Amino acid sequence: MDLHYLTVILLGIVEGLTEFLPVSSTGHLILASELLGYDASTWAMFNVVIQLGAILAVVVLYWRTFWAVAMGLLRREPVSWRFLRNLVVAFIPAAVIGLALHDYIEILLGAPQVVAWALIAGGIAILLIERMVKQDLFHGIADIPMVRVIGIGFIQCLAMVPGVSRSGATIMGALTLGVERRTAAEFSFFLAIPTMLGATALELIKKGDRITSAAVGWDSIALGFVVSFLVAIVVIKAFVGLVSKHGFAPFAWYRIVAGASALVWLAMR
Prior knowledge:
This protein is mostly helical. Helices cover about 75% and strands about 0% of the residues. The protein contains 13 helices and no strands. α2 (about 25-35) packs antiparallel against α8, α4 crosses α11 and α8 (about 110-130) packs parallel to α10 (about 165-175). The longest helix has 29 residues, at about 220-245. It is globular and about 55 Å long.
């Protein structure tokens, strides 16, 4: 198989594995670009768009939830409206701040050292939060109060620093604000849909005219999309059960080891 398509498949696997785990998919894709030696800027559009494959996995796995909410909205059921309200409100900070700081975020995407340090710092933060958080007041997305939803939305914005992890920031933020583990994880899954759709739309608006002339064309993006989707399906199913039983400490230690290893490797290049 052509080396280019092997890279496409590998990046699709990385995206599907890491998008919903608290380990930073963007950070792993940046480090992969350094490890494999390809031009990260050439693949920037690819890295953003294949995230939609992982997002589609959420829609497929939770279609009953989305269908129930849609029917509830038509019937004007309060719980469905609160579910939708909480997703929209939590998304707004990322939309506003992401637009305002887009150029600065682009600069950080080219800094693998930032990713490595963020992985380590995030791992330590997860270990501390796991030790400190004992309360689980809210057991459903629709039950989370507005003030705490706003807090989760702002905490998600920490993931604009590559290596922090959008899912990690959202889940840990929810835990510190009293949301139980499974609900925190599922809220992170659902919140990824508007967040990543928005990020992809912004990338297409800014760079879409260059995609056909880039080294990474639509065929590669389609392949990466499918691989990301299939891998994410497996990961999401396993993740919810894992954190319900064992918590997030295994991911914290992985982040610390991966970040430290990346720092050593970057220093030795």
